[in-house]
Design brief:
binds adenosine monophosphate, 59% helix
Length: 185
């Protein structure tokens, strides 16, 4: 059963690679960014509470996020497996996830998609133009990168210390990166 976390900065290709892996393995692709954007689009109470965080490129408070994503992870964990895209995003979230799920739901592998910061900015700007994401403006992208850089080193260390981390050079086209992920796994 594949229970995988995809780690990487904004624009590192997590969503693209998770979608491919989901298609190939049947594991459920769980993107917290997509789930949050769907709440906003549907005008739910949660959507109203989180919109300002997404617009600013800030992390949504953990309690709101866990209430949304944990039930989905708990269903997918023992049945289809899962591919987490955009979650956990901090060591605190990773620890809380480990504490709150049972053994047959816990994360068993983590793939870090490594892309230089300059390339991340270039990709995210291109995506904003094509997908109309309100948080893909130059200022917000810059801030999201800062948030990633601030949170990711502890998070990466957390998973490396558990022996779960696989690092993949992701500064390449999607097919090449996908082959590298398969080789790493
Ligand atoms: P993404 O689509 O993964 O780039 O996420 C878009 C935005 O959703 C982020 O900039 C955050 O505002 C919010 N978000 C997504 N995942 C998380 C998370 N794990 N923790 C906190 N906020 C999140």
């Amino acid at each position: 059963m594949l229970r995988l976390v995809l780690l990487g900065g904004p624009g590192s290709g997590k969503g693209t690679q998770a979608a491919r892996l989901a298609e190939q393995t049947g594991a459920r692709h769980i993107s917290t960014g997509q789930l949050l954007r769907a709440e906003i689009a549907a005008g739910t109470e949660l959507g109203h509470r989180v919109a300002a965080y997404l617009d600013a490129g800030e992390l949504v408070p953990d309690d709101l996020l866990f209430g949304l994503v944990l039930p989905i992870i708990e269903v997918a964990g023992p049945s289809t497996g899962y591919l987490l895209d955009g979650f956990p995003r901090s060591k605190t979230q990773a620890q809380r996830l480990d504490a709150e799920v049972g053994r047959c739901t816990e994360v068993c592998r983590v793939v870090l998609l490594k892309v230089p910061a300059r390339e991340l900015v270039r990709r995210a700007l291109g995506r904003g133009a094509s997908q109309g994401r309100s948080d893909d403006t130059p200022e917000v992208i810059k801030h999201r990168l800062q948030v990633f850089e601030r949170e990711s080193s502890e998070l990466i260390r957390y998973y490396r210390d558990r022996g779960l981390l696989y690092e993949v050079d992701a500064a390449a086209d999607p097919d090449t990166v996908y082959r590298r992920i398969q080789a790493a796994l």
